[in-house]
Design a protein that fits this description.
- The structure is a single chain.
- The protein has 303 residues and is α/β, with parallel strands linked by helices.
- The protein folds into two domains: 84 residues, Leucine Dehydrogenase, chain A, domain 1 (Rossmann fold); 155 residues, NAD(P)-binding Rossmann-like Domain (Rossmann fold), CATH 3.40.50.720.
- Helix content is 38%, strand content 16%.
- It has ten helices and eleven strands.
- α7 links the parallel β5 and β6.
- The relative contact order is 0.17.
């Protein structure tokens, strides 16, 4: 079977160029560029690397980005006060609070405090509710990236059985809600076409007969956060496999001492799949590109 690699780097580059042209058009009419504020609490190295990648992507397309950093010992009220300041700042169009937060903070309280019109992570109750209702919303960057990747490769979800492995608020729940909905008309300026009408099964670590369920799927979204969750014996010939996992595996032969793998046994599954995303280079670059799209959407429309 001929397998098509879903090239997230290529599609993300196309999206970034589209956003760059939008920003240039704004500036040519003497309008300011969109402004993204990223709030980081603590000194987690992976978090700061992630943020640096987001800021670099913003710089390349002309979006203004700032990182507001606090130590891990600030109070929840201090963070809520900062969010309120950003909500009130008319020059700030998008707000991200980098997750995870320190244990002494209530993540739900913090996310709920963000103005939904500036919630470019799509995690406020308002945006999650609108996503669930099938209404136009600012949806999470990773789910949007997955939908965009499928759309640009002209892969229809209509009538397909989609199995989502993972039930996180970041990926599993929103992508399931998006793909099961009746399609709606996208907002003007949004590049993602309407998609949906899928039959969606959401699985988790306690799901019994996971292999049997996956074997029946036309499309599998693996977002469990565990290497080799999806093996070749769990995939039917011709399935479409989207690997969201980013896992660091020790590898003495690698220059860094580790390598990055997904949740899918890629080499074996690729022999059976019609389409598959690589790791890295599949969903990850689409997430950052979709964040830029979300920032533009917040700048122009909000929710």
């Amino acid at each position: 079977m001929t397998t098509t690699i879903l090239d997230g780097k290529k599609i993300a580059a196309e999206i970034c160029e589209e956003v760059r042209r939008e920003v240039e058009e704004l500036k040519s009419h003497d309008q300011r560029a969109p402004h993204l504020a990223i709030v980081v609490v603590g000194r987690d190295t992976a978090q700061h690397t992630n943020v640096a990648n987001k800021i670099d992507a913003c710089d390349k397309v002309g979006i203004e980005a700032e990182c507001i950093t606090y130590n891990g010992f600030i109070t929840e009220q201090t963070l809520l006060t900062e969010i309120q300041r950003l909500n009130s700042d008319e020059t700030v169009n998008g707000i991200i609070v980098q997750l995870p937060l320190p244990n002494h903070m209530c993540e739900q309280n913090i996310l709920a405090a963000i103005d939904p019109r500036k919630d470019v992570d799509g995690l406020t109750p308002t945006n999650m509710w609108r996503t669930m209702q099938g209404l136009p919303a600012i949806v999470g960057a990773t789910p949007r990236g997955i939908r965009e990747l499928l759309a640009r490769y002209r892969i229809s979800t209509e009538g397909k059985h989609v199995v989502v492995i993972g039930r996180s608020n970041l990926v599993g729940k929103p992508i399931a809600m998006m793909l099961m909905q009746r399609p709606y008309q996208s907002l003007p300026g949004m590049h993602t076409p309407a998609m949906g009408n899928a039959t969606v099964t959401v699985c988790n670590s306690k799901t019994e007969n996971l292999a049997t369920i996956c074997k029946s799927a036309d499309i599998i979204v693996a977002a469990a956060g565990c290497p080799n969750t999806l093996t070749a014996s769990m995939v039917k010939n011709g399935a479409i496999v989207i690997d969201v996992g980013i896992n660091r595996i020790e590898d003495a032969s690698a220059p860094e001492g580790f390598r990055i793998v997904g949740d899918v046994d890629y080499d074996c599954v690729a022999l059976k799949a019609a389409y598959i995303t690589p790791v890295p280079g599949g969903v990850e670059p689409m997430t950052i590109a979709s964040l830029l799209q979300n920032t533009m959407q917040a700048y122009k429309y909000g929710v």
